[in-house]
Write a structure and sequence with these properties.
Elements: H1 13-29, H2 50-57, H3 61-74, H4 84-91, H5 95-130
Helix pairs in contact: 1-2, 1-3, 1-5, 3-4, 3-5
Length: 140
């Protein structure tokens, strides 16, 4: 599906790294909960809900996929196609619960980044072992 909460199969290590960095910035944006808000995008006084913060920071789509995976796991009764990230934000009992969700999303991104980096290195090792760098035969 186009947006099922899973990272694209062709996501590069760079894209995943940007998503990871964004998820860290998103957590920091809330200043330990001082800038967190529920029920609407913003309170007009510098506090934002999860969606409002994402809008302010302009993160990559792949970061939203990690958040959606966590939201779906925590809110399985939320119908597909409904605003699952808003439901996640508004149903957290406090900022610590939302922070836990953000950190779970960071862990998913970090795990995917590890897989992507290992894949790059193993493909480079295969090239090194065969001697074929793709530049043509017979080049030492």
């Amino acid at each position: 599906m186009p947006f099922d909460g899973r990272p694209r199969q062709d996501a590069s290590a760079h894209e995943i790294s940007c998503a990871f960095d964004f998820l860290i910035r998103l957590e920091r944006f809330f200043s330990g909960g001082l800038r967190w808000h529920r029920g609407e995008l913003s309170d007009g006084d510098g506090k934002y809900c999860l969606i409002g913060a994402i809008d302010q920071l302009r993160g990559p789509d792949i970061a939203l996929r990690y958040l959606a995976r966590i939201a779906r796991a925590r809110r399985p009764s939320c119908a597909f196609g409904s605003p699952v990230l808003a439901a996640l934000n508004d149903n957290c009992r406090d900022f610590e619960e939302l922070r836990d969700c953000l950190r779970e999303a960071q862990e998913l991104a970090a795990a995917d980044l590890g897989h992507a980096v290992r894949a790059v290195w193993s493909s480079r090792a295969a090239v090194r072992d065969t001697g074929d760098c793709g530049w043509g035969a017979g080049i030492p």
